Amino acid sequence: RRSGAAALVERVHALTRPIPVHALIETHGALREVEAIAAHPRLESLSFGLMDFVSAHRGAIPQSAMTAEGQFAHPLVARAKLAIAAACHGHAKTPSHCVVTEFKDTRLLQRAAERACREFGYTRMWSIHPTRCA
After folding, report:
1. Half-sphere exposure of residue 118: CA atoms within 13 angstroms, side-chain side
2. Alpha carbon 39 to chain centroid distance?
3. 21-25 sheet: strands from edge to edge
4. How much is the average pLDDT of 32-40?
5. CB environment 37-69: b (16+ within 10 A), e (fewer)
6. Cα separation of 53 and 49, whole Å?
7. Which helix or strand (DSSP H or E) is residue 113 part of?
8. DSSP per-residue codes, 9-57
9. What is the dihedral of CA 97, 87, 91, 117, to 10 degrees?
10. Is the dihedral of CA 67, 47, 72, 69 positive or negative?
């Protein structure tokens, strides 16, 4: 008998096949367990929760580390990004990069996506469409 949140949803809704799991790594604890999380057989994708990760450091990581450029430069953020991508690739899962705070600047969005792919091994990226934001 399967257990966990996904199994509960499957039972409640009488689903006949296992639903995939997508997880978000946004805390120190999740980062410590990233290999085990990536190894979960139902997991398809891991995403990096940059803003919550920075907040969890209680000021040790500056706000500038959440920008399109800063998130690649700060050592603690870069280390987290690399650990997530490496765990995903090691377990044949999809690493999904975080959003960029300057979501209205499509040039910065493009550059961040390219850098996340080229330098950090991410193959997907969360996005907020710039024309949908006030």
Report:
1. 7
2. 15
3. 21-25, 43-48, 94-97, 124-125
4. 95
5. bbeeeebebbbbbbbebbebeeeebeeebbbbe
6. 6
7. helix 106-120
8. HHHHTT-SSPPPEEEEE-SHHHHHTHHHHHH-TTEEEEEE-HHHHHHHT
9. 40
10. negative
CB under 8 Å, gap of 24 or more: what pairs does 3-12 form? 6/42
Residues present in the chain in total: 134
Q: What is the pLDDT at residue 121?
A: 94
Which residue, among 17, 13, 37, 18, has the nearest Cα to 27 in the 3D structure?
37
CA 100, 104, 108, 111 torsion-angle sign: positive
Q: Can you give the pTM of this predicted structure? A: 0.85
Distance of alpha carbon 25 from alpha carbon 46, whole angstroms = 7
Over the stretch 93-111, which tens digit does the pLDDT of each residue have?
999 988 777 878 888 888 9
